[in-house]
Amino acid sequence: MSSNSSSPVVETGSVATPSGDPRGSITLRDVTQTYGSGADAVTAVGPVDLEVPAGEFLVLVGASGCGKSTLLRLIAGFEPATSGQVEVSGGVPVPGVTSGVVFQQPRLFPWRTVGGNVDLALRYARIPKAERATRRDELLHRVGLDDTADRRIWEISGGQQQRVAIARALAAETSLLLLDEPFAALDALTRERLQEDLRAVSTDSGRTNVFVTHSADEAAFLGTRIVVLSRRPGRVALDLTSPLPRTGATPDELRGSPEYAALRAEVSAAVKEAAAAER
Ligand code: ADP
Ligand code: MG
After folding, report:
1. Which of 70, 104, 235, 236 to mutate to test the pocket of ligand 1 (most atoms within 8 A of CB)?
2. Does ligand 1 have an atom closer than 6 angstroms to the CB of 70?
3. What DSSP designation does 8 have?
4. In terms of C-beta density within 10 A (0-12 exposed, 13-18 middle, 19 or more buried), how is residue 93 classed?
5. 22, 180, 221, 242: which has the fewest C-beta neighbours closer than 10 Å?
6. Nearest listed ligand to the Cα of residue 105
7. Is 202's pLDDT higher than 80?
């Protein structure tokens, strides 16, 4: 991820996903998730059916509390679904193996350096010691953080911390990256910059992305596909394929285009309608 979005860094070591290759694909069949039991039972999600081919940039968008994070946790494999099937790359999801995850807060280790945080993820991914320094520098380069390996976490900005979190999630080179409102805590300008860099990197990588947000702007800018969830229990209320090009247009051209404006308006209206709909 280059900090200069007009010249995206070409990824090295990314996972190529030729068509028909299941790596990074997601299948949800009749998935529901219920917390608690008896009178206290809360169904957070479902039933949801969703087929996500490898390489797609799926944005899940919906009002707060509609079950977006729950759905992402199921895809990550952090918890099993109450009913239905969740498959990633054709099998059972395993955290850190079938996907990398980026949360709203960077959740870095403050007593480690920037490089130390990425290093730990590489160790966790069982990258041999001899390769780690090179891989660490590659990852930091990819997220636009050259020459920061020795910096302390508290010395860098919130936007840079979130870049470290993305580098860490990329360490295992999983074919699926899950992002749960990763830019929500950042100021508007930093958020736009990170959106631009993530869009460029994902286009180059062939990796599948699932990005959760409540922002119609963010959804319209980032997604190749946008799924609007209804209010709890979250179900698919709208499933759209973006008409915006992935390459050949600058971020400003994209954001200024009538296609972007129409898409954003459609998503925004669907989110509001889904949130208000009677059950
Ligand atoms: P979103 O990410 O869209 O804001 P969540 O997936 O976090 O929504 O939550 C959806 C609903 O499920 C909420 O009503 C929330 O309170 C409930 N919920 C989520 N996780 C749990 C849990 N571990 N135990 C009980 N209820 C939960
Ligand atoms: Mg959430």
Report:
1. 70
2. yes
3. P
4. buried
5. 22
6. 2
7. yes
**259-273: per-residue pLDDT in tens?**
999 999 999 999 999
Question: Residue 232: nearest ligand to its CA?
Answer: 1
Which atom of ligand 1 is least distant from the CA of 67?
6
Q: Is residue 224 scored above 80 in pLDDT?
A: yes
Q: Angle at CA 108, nearest 5°, toward 107 and 112?
A: 160
Q: Does residue 4 line the site of ligand 1, with CB under 6 A?
A: no
Cβ burial of 36 (10 Å; 0-12, 13-18, 19+) is exposed
Contact 97, 172 (CB under 8 A): yes
**Beta carbon of 275 within 6 Å of any ligand 1 atom:** no
Nearest to residue 230, comparing CAs of 43, 18, 2, 15?
43
Residue range 132-183, pLDDT digits in tens: 999 999 899 888 899 999 999 999 999 999 999 988 988 888 899 999 999 9
CA 88 to chain centre: 15
Q: Which ligand 1 atom is at minimum distance from the Cα of 42? A: 26
